[in-house]
């Protein structure tokens, strides 16, 4: 990261967050394991044994990450983990992708693909809208033919396909 | 020898028209995937894997292994021309490859890269073919304590040889185990760690995990770092390639040493990246004239490339024979094999003799065909110079040498 870009999250903060998330994950795994017996019976380990110890190791390692993070605090507080520009770039990619994923639940994968491609091409790529719509439409039709007809793999469909009678 | 007979049988399976076409398609796709940043060999293999479900296993493996080689080589292309390694294992190629390109010797650099890659890959494949039967026989004597010991060695070396904090490596390994524990337990039949979500009954799919972690994760990382390209144009003429080929035997010591390092690091869980760095370091140390490394020495391209590809091939051996993948792509391919019902491990050699030899020989031929494939499209498009593609919004920025 160049020092010209402003830091949004410092390395130290991220280390602490990582440690905490890992700690949470370890606790979730341990709690899930405790639903079953965590001992050893005559047939071998009981169902909860393996996840319990895996979760325990995660908890211990995450505490290790936290301790290391605090020990290196002086060095890592000045270090940038994420800069403002980097964050903007990531969000510019991630937010449309998340919207596409959420939208596909409602609209179906094909309509979602069309909307995502057309939207990203017009608003982020700067292409003219006739070209963008044509390309997006062409790719959507190509995927439809590829998956539905050639691979015979039915994908998630939405209200438009139901309206048109395509199953 | 039994292995040679199987290898010949494998060649007869692999060298049909259909399979050769698949190899060429795979290599071209792989080069395309390797040249684009953000998409590397593991991602490319993952993304192509669902397409192969409709093929028979041998064709699918041929396509995927050819793609893997193409991607490895595509990574070297961007290392040399753009100083951007397309693969972690191509980082060492940037040290001398890009300076060579900037001095106007891009064709030489590319030629050395793909010739030594082919040599390394062949060495790796020959090794695993000769050794595989023996390793499998040895592995058949394995039972639970031995498997545990081998896996423990693998994970311990990840923690020890990995650059990151050991605690984070341990967390990653254990999270992987936790993901596999989700769903129905095969031993007791109990449903674990689903917290009532019905969708998790079958566990977390391997493909979902790999696409999320390798695919989307890498894309987000690439977006964050921003895509900036200043490349070097390279005109690849067949005459220059042939001239460079003739000078290659001069570097036989480097080639052999790097191939050995690569094979060793591939079989033990070192991986292609570690192999390429180690090979570059040793080449620099044992060179008769150590000055010039870092400014465009030929050995600086030959050494890491040979080791990288030798390791890439031999990483398949522990995956096939023991069920332990030696690299990320070997792990993805192992997932693919399991989806096709072929469980890697010693039993694979007993149950699917034809498949194993059919898988080794395409690696030989696709290793040999990948440099050829790279040569032919540029040859067809010369005299126009061959600028490498730049991604996103069609801007192509290049600076002349």
From TrEMBL, chain A:
Originating organism: Chelatococcus composti
Keywords from the named record: Membrane, Transmembrane, Transmembrane helix
Residues that span the membrane, as ranges: 12-34, 49-71, 92-123, 129-147
Annotated protein name in UniProt: DUF1468 domain-containing protein
Domain DUF1468: 20-155
InterPro entries xrefs: DUF1468
Lineage: superkingdom: Bacteria
Keyword Ion transport on entry: no
């Amino acid at each position: 990261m160049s020092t010209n870009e402003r830091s949004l999250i410092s390395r130290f903060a991220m280390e602490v967050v990582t440690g905490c998330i890992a700690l949470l994950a370890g606790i979730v795994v341990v709690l899930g394991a405790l639903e079953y017996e965590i001992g050893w019976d005559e047939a071998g380990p009981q169902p909860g044994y393996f996840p319990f110890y895996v979760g325990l190791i995660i908890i211990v390692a995450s505490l290790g990450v936290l301790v290391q993070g605090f020990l290196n605090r002086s060095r890592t507080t000045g270090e940038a983990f994420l800069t403002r520009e980097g964050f903007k770039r990531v969000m510019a990619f991630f937010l449309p992708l998340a919207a596409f994923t959420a939208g596909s639940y409602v609209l179906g994968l094909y309509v979602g693909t069309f909307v995502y491609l057309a939207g990203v091409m017009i608003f982020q790529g700067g292409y003219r809208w006739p070209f963008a719509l044509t390309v997006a439409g062409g790719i959507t039709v190509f995927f439809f033919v590829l998956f539905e007809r050639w691979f015979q793999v039915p994908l998630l469909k939405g209200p438009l396909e139901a309206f048109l009678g395509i199953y | 020898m039994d292995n040679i007979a199987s290898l010949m049988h494998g060649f007869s399976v692999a060298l049909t028209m259909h399979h050769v076409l698949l190899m060429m398609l795979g290599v071209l796709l792989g080069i395309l995937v390797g040249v684009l940043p953000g998409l590397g060999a593991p991602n490319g293999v993952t993304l192509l894997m669902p397409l192969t479900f409709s093929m028979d296993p041998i064709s699918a493996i041929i396509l995927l292994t050819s793609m893997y080689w193409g991607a490895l080589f595509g990574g070297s292309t961007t290392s040399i021309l753009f100083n951007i390694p397309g693969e972690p294992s191509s980082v060492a190629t940037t040290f001398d490859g890009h300076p060579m390109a900037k001095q106007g010797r891009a064709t030489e650099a590319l030629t050395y890269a793909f010739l030594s890659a082919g040599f390394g890959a062949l060495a790796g494949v020959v090794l695993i073919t000769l050794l595989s039967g023996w390793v499998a026989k040895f592995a058949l004597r394995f039972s639970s304590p031995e498997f545990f010991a081998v896996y423990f060695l693998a994970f311990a070396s990840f923690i020890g040889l990995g650059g990151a904090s050991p605690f984070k490596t341990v967390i990653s390994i254990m999270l992987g185990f936790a993901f596999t524990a989700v769903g129905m337990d095969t031993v007791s039949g109990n449903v674990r760690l689903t917290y009532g979500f019905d969708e998790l009954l079958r566990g977390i799919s391997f493909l979902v995990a790999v696409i999320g972690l390798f695919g989307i994760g890498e894309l987000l990382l690439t977006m964050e770092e921003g895509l900036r390209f200043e490349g070097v144009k390279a005109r690849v003429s067949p005459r220059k390639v042939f001239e460079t080929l003739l000078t290659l035997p001069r570097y036989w010591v480097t080639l052999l040493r790097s191939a050995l390092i690569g094979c060793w690091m591939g079989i033990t869980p070192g991986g292609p990246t570690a192999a390429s760095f180690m090979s570059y370091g040793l080449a620099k140390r044992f060179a008769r004239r150590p000055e010039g490394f870092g400014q465009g020495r030929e050995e600086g391209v030959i050494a890491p490339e040979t080791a990288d590809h030798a390791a890439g091939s031999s990483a398949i051996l522990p995956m096939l024979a023991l069920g332990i993948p030696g690299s990320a792509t070997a792990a993805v391919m192992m997932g693919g094999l399991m989806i096709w019902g072929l469980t890697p491990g010693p039993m694979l050699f007993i149950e699917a003799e034809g498949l194993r030899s059919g898988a080794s020989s395409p690696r030989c031929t696709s290793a040999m065909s990948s440099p050829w494939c790279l040569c032919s499209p540029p040859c067809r498009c010369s005299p126009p110079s061959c600028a490498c593609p730049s991604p996103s919004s069609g801007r192509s920025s290049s600076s002349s040498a």
